[in-house]
Request: fold
Amino acid sequence: MTKYVYFFKEGNKDMRELLGGKGANLAEMTNLGLPVPQGFTITTEACQNYYLNNQELSKEIADEVLAKVMELEKLTGKKFGDAKNPLLVSVRSGSRASMPGMMDTVLNLGLNDDVANNYSNNEESKRFIYDSYRRFIMMFADVVKGYSKEKFERYLDQYKKDHNKEYDIELSADDWFTITNDFKKIYYDIAKEDFPSNPQIQLLEAVKAVFKSWNNDRAKYYRKMNDIPDDWGTAVNVQEMVYGNLKENSGTGVAFSRNPSTGENELYGEYLINAQGEDVVAGVRTPEAIATLEKIMPDIYTEFKQIAKNLENHYKDMQDMEFTIEAGKLYILQTRNGKRTASAAIKIAVDMVKEGLISKEDALLRVMPKQLDSLLHPTFNKDVLAKEKWIAQGLAASPGAGSGKIYFDAEDLINASKSGEKTILLRLETSPEDIEGMNYAEGVLTIRGGMTSHAAVVARGMGKCCICGCSDLTIDVNKKIVTTKDGLVLKKGSEISLDGSTGKVYAGILPLEESQISGDFKTFMDWADEIRHLHVRANAETVKDVKTAMLFGAEGIGLCRTEHMFFSEERIFNFRKMILANTKEERTKALDAILPYQLQDFEQIFASAAPNPVVIRYLDPPLHEFLPKTDEEIKELATSLNISVTDINKRIMELKEMNPMMGHRGCRLLITYPEIAQMQTKAVITSAINTIKKGINIIPEIMIPLVGDENELAYIKNIVDETAKKTMKDLDCNIKYMVGTMIELPRAALKASEIAKYAEFFSFGTNDLTQMTYGFSRDDASKFLTTYYDQKIFSQDPFTTIDETGVGKLIEMAITKGKSVNKNIELGICGEHGGEAKSIEYFNKIGIDYVSCSPYRVPVARLAAARAAIIEKMNN
Amino acid sequence: MTKYVYFFKEGNKDMRELLGGKGANLAEMTNLGLPVPQGFTITTEACQNYYLNNQELSKEIADEVLAKVMELEKLTGKKFGDAKNPLLVSVRSGSRASMPGMMDTVLNLGLNDDVANNYSNNEESKRFIYDSYRRFIMMFADVVKGYSKEKFERYLDQYKKDHNKEYDIELSADDWFTITNDFKKIYYDIAKEDFPSNPQIQLLEAVKAVFKSWNNDRAKYYRKMNDIPDDWGTAVNVQEMVYGNLKENSGTGVAFSRNPSTGENELYGEYLINAQGEDVVAGVRTPEAIATLEKIMPDIYTEFKQIAKNLENHYKDMQDMEFTIEAGKLYILQTRNGKRTASAAIKIAVDMVKEGLISKEDALLRVMPKQLDSLLHPTFNKDVLAKEKWIAQGLAASPGAGSGKIYFDAEDLINASKSGEKTILLRLETSPEDIEGMNYAEGVLTIRGGMTSHAAVVARGMGKCCICGCSDLTIDVNKKIVTTKDGLVLKKGSEISLDGSTGKVYAGILPLEESQISGDFKTFMDWADEIRHLHVRANAETVKDVKTAMLFGAEGIGLCRTEHMFFSEERIFNFRKMILANTKEERTKALDAILPYQLQDFEQIFASAAPNPVVIRYLDPPLHEFLPKTDEEIKELATSLNISVTDINKRIMELKEMNPMMGHRGCRLLITYPEIAQMQTKAVITSAINTIKKGINIIPEIMIPLVGDENELAYIKNIVDETAKKTMKDLDCNIKYMVGTMIELPRAALKASEIAKYAEFFSFGTNDLTQMTYGFSRDDASKFLTTYYDQKIFSQDPFTTIDETGVGKLIEMAITKGKSVNKNIELGICGEHGGEAKSIEYFNKIGIDYVSCSPYRVPVARLAAARAAIIEKMNN
Reply:
């Protein structure tokens, strides 16, 4: 018989698959002898069972839960529903991966009229118990029954207004008693049945509700964003309640063993005296910094600090802990590896290596490659920032620079962002409903809440710039207006800039500058380079991008898309002339005019990349992409080319294609217009010779796109070789160059042994290869892929993460076939998968020599390659 | 050292690769002791050498040719350039495959002033020799030097006008002497050098010219049309001249050992007295039927008849022979397996089996599957034909029915045909330049020329209806008008109908009727069925097509495209309503309205196909294909659906795709709109139950298109199974049905083991699979594929003949993977390759169970499958 329920003392930290992260850590702490309120964990298998069982708790599980309640009663000496000595519990979710705030929680479970009555021996107790009871009723109605909180809240607001009270704190014990009874009536009105007084029933219902919350919309969205599988399910933790709101010698807080924003090795966190945990997290009251606790409760502070250090040493990672002080006694409610900003992650990892706590390999495995993104994105220009006057300051909750238009509402913001606007989410405080909006925003700004508020935690996890608790701003929620201390009024659409590293808010959009890899970040990346063997190149075709790529550690240019060089004004004119030419002679003449530009570009790129290699891809897109689209542009072109509008329109019609992705492009263009390949070869070889003559060493790699048959490549390689030979003879200088091909059509992979006869390298264009293998047009597939994710037909986007079982099989086939003909063939990746960590791990495994990605993803790829090498070593 | 030149006696019929067809047969006949004018063959390897050698004859080859000339001089006792006893030769092409009239020929080679002078001892000889000499000069100028014949022809016309002569025959020996001298002057004017008098030089130049003619446009076009590889090259035959125009006891002719039009076992052919071979072939004079030769030259006739029978027995095939009678002596100039109409091919094959000459297998290998096409196309309705009065009658040169508009010019005709017109090519006589036009025409009609004229031979080869020598019509070539005997005037664009089986021409377009498989054709097809093991199904979705398919021997329907059923007026309305629906409810309602139609269709199809299987493919094309295109149609739809034009246009815009081929179609539609799959399943199961209840046995096969992932198929199969279960329960009847998938995406092949878990059959959609594997959009690829063929990058169209080395590898992979999971999985082909002979041979080899093709290709596929089985057996 499967065991579905574990007492905390029965588990340990390695059981997170079964017990969830929270449950496993509660078990571990219990066994470490830490002061943990006792309880038990209902396993993730029980959750799976619940879903298989048509969203019902099986009798087997229900019985086991109730049996465990009896054990807990024995352990605590308290009893469910006992008026004298009642057992009150919290019921919380806890999945394998942390999903903070995404699922539901029920607190104060076990309360009923008997218990409350019996507890009301004085004003203070009565006030406390009925405040808790009314909270429980509302929470149960909302979370377990799915009734809206609105009626309860509206009633409470009205009650306060009627009794001329503003804050909850002003209400008396009797007020809460009345309110509790009225809440029960409201519950009855909605539910058409009494609020359940039996704690067993309360508990079983709550457990089901937590299981159900695994599939609420925000949890699903969070999982999708964080690649968490839908079939893991959540565990449920049932734990004795402790109360931080019992008296003035009570309190509750959240703390990190190191600073999650900067990585500094200092106890970092916040607490509230006489409050419940939800008050801290929800950001309703702005809490105190943890350091001040030392003065108020020195013993508790010392005890907690020691526990924090012990937990960090035990888990060998920075810990994020929740604690409660109930009547002068410290309880640890939760510990977990703390979420942190990318720079904190790096500092902590580097420090811990220096402290001898972890190895370099551990350090590299600690930082997710994706996290580096936020370190690489531009920051505000420091000189500008120094001169600029800020308009408000809050807590520097998550570093980074964010500029955009203010939105007060996540839905509005998402729409604006989708239409291309840069946006800032401005909220009194954020709640889990805002998570999708936060993801779309450039930055998040809240008026209330501390460094551990929802907004702060989620933004740090996303690597999104965030300023919290910005009380310099006054918000009028109804009018959707905020006012600064100086009286500046900001409304929907006003432009502001957030500096997440200082907490300062600026008016308008500030200019940005490149970020730098230095200090701990550099140390960390150097370790990655020591360990990895997969090389990393960049996709770039402007000198600026090539320089950025080199700055970020690229070992060459893996994809220089020559067509991007045709778009500036004087070039596009001649390129259009080429397209509109009626004869080979006219075409050649137009191309001759482009040659000097292309030559100059290549020289600059070679100089910026040398001595690293540069892979130059010849013209790829269909010609119609270069022709004007509007009538006006067409007229203008006709005038400047001295031909008729009719002729241009005729050519546009001729070039129109049903399925341009599978049309006249890539090597097909070079075959029909060999003079393009001739011009491009002349430019590559001449510029390489000029570069070499300056004493800079370079071996250009010429790459032919969209090859599907060896004869295509042979035909073009012949043109390239003939032109190169002639160019070298004309310039009286022999140089080395390589000719290779993209493998981006299924047929190219299938025929790789034949194609390899003419190719010195293969570069896998995984974007097109994915399109053709799936038969998905990237431009059109989003229409139905949403349904695919919803219906769990696909678990990941094949355009983001390489499809190992399909597309990957073609790549592996091409590698084997290619190597069978030319064992030294150079193998690269130049699709977007080249910058994605999971895909890089795969490419490392199958023997790719290098990946090429956008300059900003180069460090991501370097780290991912190092992690792949470590994982590979661990598996061998 | 390679031997490049073979005396006829050195070769044999099995050397056609080296000596070409004509050379090998001349060798064979020489060794059989037949009266063949002697000579030698320059090999196809010499031709390849010529092209490799920059279109020059290597000294080695030239020397070998001249050495062979000396041997020929010894053998004949004649000498090149000898005034007394000159050796005159013909120089003719002869490739491995017959390419009649496509390449160049030079006759009378060896003539010069000395020879001509010496031969002019009487008026008759002088007339003959100068007539030959002037022909030689013009031919040499035209063929060898590439000068236009026009100047020569214009001069001759002027000469006749000046001398008041109308026909060549009226010119005297002195006239020809003058003309010859003037021809030499014209030659000098163009060439700036004298006409070469040295026969050695004449010969070497002529040999080069023949080699060069391998690559003239019409030869290239012919090869492409007939799948003849470009790299074979041609051999050259140098043969002593014999003259059928020497005296009245001379003549020349062409004959077949059996009737090439009907297949009757009778000597069949034509001859002209006192004429050269070219006069017969060119159709300038209308020749006499061969049977009349028996009266004029009984001995020659008997001798020839015997030779014909001997050759047929020797080659075990019907022979096409050229002969010349020079001063009472018979020479055989050529024999080859005769081209014949499809019905003749079948009759001859069946007769020869009955005569014990060949086996059934031989018979099946004798008829090219492609040839059957012409037998299957409709013929004129016999009742109508009986009542209709014909307007002219000519020779029934090639059977079949053809109706269309008259064109006098191949180029005009091609343009008209490309724009969708049905056309008839009407010419005085055709020449090789007309071949492309003949291919586009529905039928060919010539005023002059016999059963073996160019038009007749080529039309029979193409299986195209043709009437020759229709002297009932008078043509005015300049005005482009023909007049019948009754004075009816036909001009460009007039509609006529040709009955190629009777030679009768009708005015207007006559109605057609289905052809029948009966008599010899049926015997032949029965033999094919005995031998083949690959099954043949048809693609059909109308009752008419299903019936035709069954008539033609289909063993089921392999592809019933349900979307074709949505296009009739009342259906498209509801289908559009479905597309424009905003909710699932509206969509379901619109689909409910279509259900009864679809149900009725399926019932009729099941009834027509039973007990054969029917594979029903669910909705495949993108929805936008069903929406109206013009503003008017949109307006109409808006009115009838009572929605706004704006809403319809909005939906049209939403459905627009960048690459529809890779967009929202196939199973992707069924996933986003599961109610379509539900409706279609309900229709299939209900109609199958209704059919079975009538006592007709049927197992419907439900096919899901465009699957690329097992989860897609699993998801839809679940919908199908649930709906089927419910439908069967509602109707209280359990039936068997199959669910399978198309394999038409590369990924489907790569993931076939997973997909096979949910599929009872795979049907390879080779059209889409070819598109995706190559990354070729069929709609767009023609733009560049022309260049691919010209540049010899591709030798065949991958959309016509399956690409065995690329696409085929995916198919083979899918078969292996599919069988590893389900060894009984049913394997079919439903792309257009399923009806193409070469592809069928391949499918047979790799273990496909059935091919499915259009009804008219079913017999083609049956024959191809039989041939594949025979070839397979021969190879084992």
